[in-house]
């Protein structure tokens, strides 16, 4: 199997015996349903910034590892975690000064619903937001102090904390919040905005989302139904697979559970399912028809496995308003898109101007050191805690994890990575738009900051999904030492979500190579073969899945009994 | 709240402002149902070996942190993880030589059912076992090679791997296995022993046990009922709380789900529930009465939250035999007790001479670096994989986690920590037996290696649980700078499960301080007050719980409908 790397583009041939040994041992002894990327897997042994290096020293441009948020092997994060590993790495049953410091710092980034634009001239969607720790409130023209961290994250109480964090100068939250309170959102003024004042640190995004389900169950005991977005993936635990259509309607999935309702994912490219309010009403009605009541709606703020989908402006706001009126808890899954990646705001939900009841975070939070978090309101934390059951997470909030988390926030802010993501993301998007104008298979290009997608289609007229072509493009780009992945329910979206240190030079490299593949390699002959393959995979895999999603949509909106699919 | 540490014993008074600030911020902003140990929490800022140091430099003897398995801030593990963090820390979708190396090394420790005694004269329970990587097969008189790691963990195939691991010289598995095959276990020869040949790396013990549930569901689709041990805790995910009586019958628990059956935990001290075969039959019958079928039995090999209970010799073997005959999958949860802690064997299940279908591991595996694992058979991995759903775990199997895991195995073996645990554990147990002979409240002392428990009772005649006294002892020991914890369903068992570097000097310190507390501090007056407190907490908390467990036991064994408790 390990007979040779695809070395056509760069003259590499053959593999080392270490490679063959490792591949054979992995296939023999490691979970058979874990995957290795690419037809010929890469043995990656070193990383630096946004580059990866294989065992033969070949350099790859990494366009997809959003976990290595501030760069592979970032020296500052590694040094911070390492120093802590050499000093103390124990659990949160002992007090440690860095845990509450980190807790309040992280919480301070959350309590804004505004889309904090980095363009000083563009204030249209801003409401005096304080979300951008990389840019500070000052740059947006706000009147927030740039002094030391006040340590308070509550809007209502004056701070009694003297926590300071010399390395980061986030906005002074209370002042920002006062400013925001003086400018209430124009819609639904009667519904109070939840303040995210309590944090739980856990070990993985899956643990964070699973914890969200436990909090929901405690806070909404009678309302056991859950709504989720089509194509969503929220994690790998038993409970999360049940709320992840990406899994339960994906390969090997066992279908939808009766208490789970799938909101059809907006498809702005095709103009489908763009009405958030209608979606909310349909989900509420579906739960009622099934004899239940919605307790919560889980949604990634920008959809990742769903195909790098940016929700239409106002979509989530309308959906949240409608569901909140019905008492439904609103969970923003920021595991993939958070921590400044979206450019315009530190958190994806802020680009939609909404205020979730629960926010879950993961992947980029520790730059690869296992860490994740859940933020929620004091009320929900109280409901979860009231029965008296302790929540203990061995590694969650352990000292080295916190050290990594602190360093990540420090680097994002000091190096202005949110602003950088916005700038480089727009540069890439511009380039992708040029490719879209030129090539028939480039159906849609979209995204926020450095969270981008290229939807590959058979042709612009039909907009038919082209997963085989997307996969082929991914492999051809890999042969040119550029790492992309494919995703979406029909696997036809090329994902771009690199470490945030990805620069203009790297963007040019990505665009240049992609342009060359489309121009030189995707010949009429190749396309003809790919289209044959498209017919096959559509007939066998993606077509049936597509019909499943459409049938769900039809039943949900027609008010038919939402039969188990 | 942070008005002063309990400094009576050592003259420490007052707390730093950093302490007060951290405690206030933590209570304000961090999950309210997370706990801080001790009435006056400790702010621990440094660790070394089996000692912890607070922010004022006060040294504490750590008798409970089994996560820091090879010692707090172990330099070798920290350096190994740190070097990897500075080089590359990415996920398992890329091939990396250390992942399969670690995989096969870890698997090689598992495939023995024997209780590998370290006492050459005590071969009674051994069947030529090869489980003790810290001691090598040779020390037990076996004929296993002490040469380099062969890289194969399968009994059936010859190795095609050339993986070597210079730092560790585990037994050559195939030869050991041949030896074992020539000495089949005397009972149930017709039931084949599962070989644990496939590993999954995950992020936490909870993720490992939750994954076990997913594998069970895939492999036994019709058999949705699960049996667990009374008092057991298997993790914090939604699904695991349901199979953890420690939680669902503990504080804030919502009771047993109909598909979960609780095997009454053996209580050798009181002579209750010692028959494994009867327990198995009762669980099978209870599932049948509830209209279901048992798919699996989950059990810690030595019970931790259940109260440091060592199962009676032969108990698990009889239970396994009976359940295996009925097609039930057997899961050994080694999250707390594995990795040589039990002294007599590398894994707890090996001390019971059983062969699980699934083994889950966590806490000590990375010495605090978040890592956990699940090992299973090729058949079960195939059943889980067959539908085609990928299993992906972002941090599981990431390169730094593997580096930490490799270093932990290396240190355990090189420093002979399993043998050390056996030696020091026996020394402690001898000392505890002397205390038991002297003091009325020391009801039972028990354990394996450095996994020990002291059951505190009202008096030796009644054997009544004394949680208030246990808690008081814990606090008094803390005042003497010795850290213990309490556990068990009635919270009356003092736990001893220190880093394995805990030595004879530390054992003497522990025994000396405990002896002094019992002798000098537990006066008749104090005991009188404690007994009043015992009456209160028994009436309000532990008595009802005790009745719940007894009622479960009664219904299970009487063949009554196993009503939801």
TrEMBL record, chains A, B:
It holds the Pfam family Aminotran_3. Transmembrane segments: none annotated. Residues 151-161, 169-191 have a biased composition (Low complexity). It comes from the Eukaryota. One of its GO terms (molecular function) is transaminase activity. GO terms for cellular component: mitochondrion. The keyword Lipid biosynthesis does not apply. Residues 148-191 are annotated as: Disordered. Keywords: Pyridoxal phosphate. The keyword Nuclease does not apply. PANTHER family: ALANINE--GLYOXYLATE AMINOTRANSFERASE 2-LIKE, PTHR45688. Belongs to the class-III pyridoxal-phosphate-dependent aminotransferase family. This is Uncharacterized protein. It comes from Volvox africanus. The lineage of its organism: Eukaryota, Viridiplantae, Chlorophyta, core chlorophytes, Chlorophyceae.
């Amino acid at each position: 199997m390990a007979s040779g790397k695809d070395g056509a583009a760069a003259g590499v041939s053959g593999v080392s015996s270490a490679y063959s040994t490792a591949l054979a041992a992995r296939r023999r002894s490691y979970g058979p349903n874990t995957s290795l990327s690419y037809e010929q897997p890469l043995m990656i042994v070193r990383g630096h910034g946004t580059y990866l290096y294989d065992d033969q020293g070949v350099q790859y441009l990494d366009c997809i590892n959003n976990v290595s948020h501030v760069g592979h092997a970032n020296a500052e994060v590694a040094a911070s975690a390492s120093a802590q590993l050499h000093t103390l790495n124990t659990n949160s049953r002992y007090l440690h000064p860095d845990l509450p410091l980190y807790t309040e710092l992280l919480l301070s980034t959350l309590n804004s619903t505004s889309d904090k634009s980095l363009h000083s001239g563009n204030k249209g969607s801003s409401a005096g937001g304080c979300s951008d720790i990389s840019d500070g409130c000052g740059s947006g023209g706000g009147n927030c102090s740039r002094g030391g961290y006040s340590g308070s994250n509550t809007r209502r109480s004056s701070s009694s904390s003297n926590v300071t964090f010399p390395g980061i100068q986030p906005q002074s939250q209370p002042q920002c919040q006062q400013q925001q309170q003086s400018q209430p959102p124009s819609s639904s003024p009667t519904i109070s905005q939840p303040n995210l004042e309590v944090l739980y640190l856990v070990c993985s995004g899956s643990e964070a989302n699973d914890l969200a389900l436990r909090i929901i169950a405690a806070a909404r005991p009678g309302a056991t139904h859950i709504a989720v977005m089509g194509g969503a993936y929220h994690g790998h635990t038993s409970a999360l697979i049940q709320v992840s259509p990406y899994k339960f309607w994906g390969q090997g999935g066992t279908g939808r559970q009766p208490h789970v309702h799938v909101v059809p994912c907006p498809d702005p490219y095709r103009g489908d399912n763009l009405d958030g309010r209608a979606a909310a009403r349909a989900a509420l009605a579906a739960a009622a028809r099934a004899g239940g009541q919605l307790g919560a709606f889980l949604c990634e703020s920008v959809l990742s496995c769903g195909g790098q989908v940016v929700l239409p402006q106002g979509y989530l706001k309308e959906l949240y308003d409608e569901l909140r009126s019905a008492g439904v808890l609103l969970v923003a899954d920021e595991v993939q898109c958070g921590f400044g990646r979206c450019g315009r705001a530190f958190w994806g939900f802020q680009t939609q101007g909404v205020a979730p009841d629960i926010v879950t975070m993961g992947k980029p939070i520790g730059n690869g050191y296992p860490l994740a978090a859940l933020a929620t309101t004091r009320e929900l934390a109280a409901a979860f805690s009231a029965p008296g059951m302790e929540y203990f997470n061995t590694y969650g909030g352990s000292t080295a994890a916190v050290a990594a988390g602190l360093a990540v926030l420090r680097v994002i802010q000091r190096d202005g990575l949110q602003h950088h993501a916005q700038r480089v993301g727009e540069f890439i998007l511009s380039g992708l738009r040029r490719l879209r104008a030129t090539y028939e298979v480039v159906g849609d290009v979209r995204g926020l900051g450095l969270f981008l997608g290229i939807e590959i289609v058979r042709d612009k007229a039909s907009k038919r999904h082209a997963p085989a072509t997307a996969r082929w493009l991914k492999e051809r780009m890999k042969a040119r030492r550029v790492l992309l992945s494919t995703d979406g329910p029909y696997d036809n979206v090329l994902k771009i979500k690199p470490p945030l240190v990805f620069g203009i030079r790297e963007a040019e490299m990505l665009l240049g190579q992609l342009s060359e593949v489309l121009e030189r390699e995707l010949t009429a002959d190749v396309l003809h073969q790919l289209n044959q393959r498209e017919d096959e995979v559509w007939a066998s895999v993606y077509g049936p899945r597509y019909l499943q999603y459409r049938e769900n949509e039809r039943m949900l909106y027609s008010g038919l009994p939402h039969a188990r699919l």
